[in-house]
Amino acid sequence: DELVYNFNLSLLYHVANRMALPDSLKRRLEPEYQKHHEYLKSLYYNDFVAIKDTTAGLYETWYNDNANQAVQVFREVAGKYTCFFVTQILATLIKADGGRLMAKGKDVDNPCGIAIREGLQPMVNRLQKRAEIIDFSASRGLLKEKVRKGIAELATYELRSRLGIDKTLQYKLLGFSISQTDIRVEAISVVKAGFKLDRYFDVTFSPKKGIIYVTLPPPTILSHEVYPRVDKLDVGFLAGINEKDMNERFNELRRQFRQDAIDNEKVLDKAKIRADSVMQLILGPVVKSINRNYKLQLRFQDMPETALSEDELRRRGEEDQPAPRPPADAPQPKKNNGFIPQ
After folding, report:
1. How do residues 266-276 score in pLDDT, each as one tens digit?
2. I need a surface site. Which of 48, 66, 106, 252 has the fewest CB within 10 A?
3. Which residues contact 41 (CB under 8 A, 6 or more apart)?
């Protein structure tokens, strides 16, 4: 919130100074921007989370690329909205004829161009330098000691895949390649998707419906193991290779594995589907032991409950059936039996 506020306000002041606006208008910049900040920060945040894999912080830190990657994503998001809010605010403060601004002088540029070329790019470059320092410090300080902590996870889906990457580094003299280095790195990946039960796990009971609801947190990537292997390394006599080149190849493979698993293989959706079978297998017998007519239904936190298909209803035996009533001789559930009536 503070970063977006200060960043955008600095852009506005830079554009105002370049346009030689009077102090009376400059004083109105911040109050005018405050009218737009609430929805702008939401747009920035949603786009940032959608682009950046925020669950891969440990791996990005190890490859010295966590803060740097965040700055690159922020640059992409900021570039998307800078022209909009700069033009919108300045058009409110100064006279605009049909959305057009009149200007005179040499090399006249519009507010959008000034904000992008003279404001956004230099400010992002300064953030980039700061990110390099943060990445270096974080990588050196990562796991100086062993980390031991208890976890509660339910892994329901695993994906194994294989990818490779080729890279040629050339050393040129007068435009002609006189030496080159060829690198080929292959890797296998093991992605496990599931649920962090220590974040959220809830069991509720609906006596009217005869259904015991198990609610899990949204699915996430629980672990991602990458095993790289250098298949080819031909080093030229002038074009050498350093550790940064190798680390970039490894991290690029890891990033591609993760993106493919989430976007193409849909491991998070498949983890949800598999979770229902796992819960029925683990808790189904417990539910039936309480009452053979009771049913177990899986739900997910902060996700709208979707209507079940006819096939799913038929599989569960719920189609066109009233809520089951327990037999007269069945033991009545007590308030302290571990279930909370809904």
Report:
1. 999 999 999 99
2. 106
3. 1, 4, 5
